[in-house]
Amino acid sequence: MNIAFWSDEDGCGTTSGMAAIASVCTDVWNLKTILLQSSNQEGDLGQKLGGGRMADTSSVRAAGRVQPDCMVKETVSYGAWDAWDMLSEMEHGLTSEGLLEYLVPVVRGRMYYLPQRARRKQDAYPESEKEAVCRGIRMAEQISDITLIDCGSGRDPMAELLLSQADAAVVTISQERQNLDAYFQNRYVLRENTIYLVNQYHQDSIYNKKNLNRLFRLCEEELAVIPHNPVFRYISGQGKLERFIRRHKSCRVFDRQFYFMQELIHTTGMLLQAADSKKIVQQRKER
Length: 287
What we know:
Layout: E1 2-7, H1 14-27, E2 33-37, H2 45-49, E3 54-56, H3 57-63, E4 75-77, H4 83-89, H5 96-99, E5 104-107, E6 111-113, H6 127-142, E7 146-153, H7 157-165, E8 168-173, H8 177-184, E9 194-201, H9 209-215, E10 223-227, H10 230-237, H11 241-248, H12 258-274, H13 278-285
Parallel strand pairs: 1-7, 1-8, 2-6, 2-7, 8-9, 9-10
Antiparallel strand pairs: 3-4, 5-6
Helix pairs in contact: 1-11, 1-12, 4-6
């Protein structure tokens, strides 16, 4: 099961929102979660979730069934190499289990992400790159309960491909009237199981949930929010986003993070239901 995240404009917090939702999947519902960014993105999942583990590239290649000409042990930081590059070089040798060697563990055994460098969007992508990304997603789905994919912002062939194949799509929007009008007047046609997500949501804004539903004819189950939270935003920039969610997942009504966590957990439930993951969640909660 996979959910694709996308926004029409930059700066909507798509990546941080996806990482927060993934953390709830992992820490609240105990789902095995894998996060990916399409190969046209900034590669900043490590900034949100931490990326300090070191990778032995020779062992990674061996796990992917690729034997380099010279098996020289080379240890590099995850920020210095790109897993999509390696996946693109492979045709049929990589297995789902081998993919784990490419993934950075956030919570070992339960939450991982695929590292990559920042890249520029392209007007066209070679078929080999599209196939590598789709193959990586299929393999991630085989070894996870839920796979979340950051398609970035703006319309490009890679984002369109991933959105068309996702079980559910999340469109991140802002509360700026000009940007809202620009998007909804030319609404990007997506699958019917689409959720609109307002990250850094201000409930006292003129464009609150009630008015967004009314003005842009969104059903209640189509609009989700992640409240504005300066503490969460700071922690996210320190690579400790998942730890913040884990720490506050069971906070009580008088805790400062209660409203934030309640809305975030509710939003995650909406997305899982849109992706038809309700049965998986129920099974996990019954364990």
